[in-house]
Specification:
Layout: H1 2-8, H2 11-31, H3 36-42, H4 46-64, H5 79-86, H6 89-116, H7 121-134, H8 136-150
Helix pairs in contact: 2-3, 2-4, 2-6, 2-7, 4-6, 6-7, 6-8, 7-8
Length: 157
């Protein structure tokens, strides 16, 4: 049975499962940010346990295929080195899980932070959608909305 799971979860299949797997979390964040389902299911540690499991599985598969983990540190040497690393599907998938996890965490933080100021769900959905699509720009949009909504600028909230 373990062998069947191992052969089923190729890099391509893992990519599809991770991308489809985070969609329900994002839909709950966008459409039901104040629900208890969001509080207990999305903004908790639960999605990160699942994503960490996928990451650990990928690390294990990479280790078995004799992936050169020391080469990952070459990404700091220049843009050409990053391009070379991204040509490897294992590294690319590790990066993608990393990126998705951080975006989902940031989306959960935005929801929790907006609840402190009782922001409207509609207003909150705009930066969450942007965050899902283009990451840091969504966080910037949330901060701009938050500054005008709360009428207070604080650099260490």
């Amino acid at each position: 049975m373990i062998e069947q799971i191992y052969t089923y979860f190729t890099i391509d299949m893992l990519y599809y499962w991770v991308n489809l797997g985070v969609l329900p979390f994002w839909l709950i964040l966008i459409f039901f940010p104040t629900s208890s389902l969001c509080r207990y299911f999305v903004t908790s540690i639960f999605p990160f346990i699942i994503l960490s499991g996928a990451y650990i599985f990928l690390l294990y598969k990479s280790y078995l295929s004799s992936y050169d983990f020391d080469n990952n540190f070459s990404l700091y040497l220049g843009i050409d080195n990053i391009q070379e690393l991204f040509s490897n599907k294992n590294f690319l998938m590790m990066f993608w899980i990393h990126f998705i996890s951080i975006n989902l965490f940031t989306g959960g933080w935005i929801v929790k932070d907006s609840q402190k100021f009782m922001m409207s769900k509609f207003l909150l959905s705009i930066p969450l959608i942007i965050l899902y699509l283009i990451g840091p720009v969504g966080l910037l949009v949330y901060w701009l909305i938050r500054i005008f909504y709360v009428k207070n600028i604080s650099l260490y909230d």
